[in-house]
């Protein structure tokens, strides 16, 4: 896993034996065990790392008005009961929520207003709830509210 894995050397002196993985990959999911011997004392811990993945088809950035499928998967072992997507919206627009049975969220004609932060929430049969946030980028035109734009003669218009 090198060079993605590190121990924070200065923190070791303070008793912090945290493992840092950057970036995390799907294959990193699983059980991690740590043993620390200090003088005559032996300490151990077990931590399970679960992975949640958000994928887009086609990949980010998405072109305005082209079909978009967003899916969310996790390494959690229980049965998936429900998948919800929460869109924070842009300033001045309402937030939206989409819930469905397991599967992908499809947006038939994504618009500039669909850009921004989306949170995927997975609910499992063992009542575990897991979520991840994804920043969706849309390539397109953010149309003005009026199709007429005025510019001063001699100035630049954008």
UniProtKB/TrEMBL annotation:
GO MF, one annotated term: protein tyrosine kinase binding
InterPro entries: Ig-like_dom, Ig-like_dom_sf, Ig-like_fold
Signal recorded as keyword: yes
GO terms of biological process kind: adaptive immune response; interleukin-15-mediated signaling pathway; positive regulation of ERK1 and ERK2 cascade; T cell activation
Keywords carried by this UniProt record: Adaptive immunity, Cell membrane, Disulfide bond, Glycoprotein, Immunity, Immunoglobulin domain, Membrane, Repeat, Secreted, Signal, Transmembrane, Transmembrane helix
Domain named Ig-like: residues: 50-131
Family statement: Belongs to the LAG3 family.
Quaternary context: Interacts with MHC class II (MHC-II); selectively recognizes stable complexes of peptide and MHC-II. Interacts with FGL1 (via the Fibrinogen C-terminal domain).
The protein's name in its UniProt record: Lymphocyte activation gene 3 protein
Gene of this entry: Lag3
């Amino acid at each position: 896993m090198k060079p993605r894995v590190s121990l924070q050397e200065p923190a070791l002196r303070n008793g912090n034996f945290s493992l840092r993985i950057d970036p995390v990959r799907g294959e990193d999911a699983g059980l991690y065990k740590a043993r620390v011997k200090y003088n005559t004392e032996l300490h151990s811990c077990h931590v399970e790392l679960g992975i949640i993945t958000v994928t887009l088809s086609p990949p980010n950035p998405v072109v305005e008005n082209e079909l978009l499928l967003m899916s969310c998967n996790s390494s959690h072992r229980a049965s998936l009961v429900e998948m919800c997507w929460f869109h924070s919206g842009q300033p001045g627009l309402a937030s939206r929520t989409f819930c469905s049975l397991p599967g992908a969220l499809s947006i038939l004609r994504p618009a500039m207003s669909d850009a921004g932060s989306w949170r995927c929430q997975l609910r499992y049969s063992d009542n575990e709830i897991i979520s991840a946030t994804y920043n969706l980028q849309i390539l397109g035109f953010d149309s003005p509210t009026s199709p007429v734009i005025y510019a001063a003669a001699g100035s630049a218009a954008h």
